[in-house]
Amino acid sequence: xxxxxxxxxxxxxxxxxxxxxxxxxxxxxxxxxxxxxxxxxxxxxxxxxxxxxxxxxxxxxxxxxxxxxxxxxxxxxxxxxxxxxxxxxxxxxxxxxxxxxxxxxxxxxxxxxxxxxxxxxxxxxxxxxxxxxxxxxxxxxxxxxxxxxxxxxxxxxxxxxxxxxxxxxxxxxxxxxxxxxxxxxxxxxxxxxxxxxxxxxxxxxxx
Length: 207
Description:
Protein name: N-(5'-phosphoribosyl)anthranilate isomerase
Organism: Azotobacter bryophylli
Shape: globular
CATH topology: TIM Barrel
Pathway: Amino-acid biosynthesis; L-tryptophan biosynthesis; L-tryptophan from chorismate: step 3/5
Radius of gyration: 16 Å
Keywords: Amino-acid biosynthesis, Aromatic amino acid biosynthesis, Isomerase, Tryptophan biosynthesis
Largest sheet: 8 strands, parallel, barrel
Domain N-(5'phosphoribosyl) anthranilate isomerase (PRAI): 7-201
């Protein structure tokens, strides 16, 4: 089994980003969505990225943002990858000069494969928990058996993951990567260093 990558999302502080890097995370996520308790300003994002070592992917998360808003942030913040977590069409996700991943919220009866096929230019598909009115960061897991065996894209598994359940999730889904936010926090937007280390230890131990 190939090594599963890990992304620590909802980073708001330089010290949390550095812990994630030191623990061996492959990526960090910065939330550009004002209604999120984990939202960052352009200034915060720039300071976090400036402190990072090389070879750590920086991901900007957007929810139904306008093309103008995304462009302004990309002009100011050197992001590597975009993550679209709203109701964006494939056309709205493309043309920003960065690769992107599209988040889909999983619920029974949803044809995940058909939804995935709409985003044929996506670098990967992130599968998260469906909660009405909440685009992500719910802290709730979904039924992993709903994930189709072969979506034709790298799968990033999210939703309610913690150090306690991530190994079981990986064993069932065999994702390309896992994405955690609330599961490694002391409070919303503030990470717990030991929870980050424990999470990444479990991810690496799953290989």
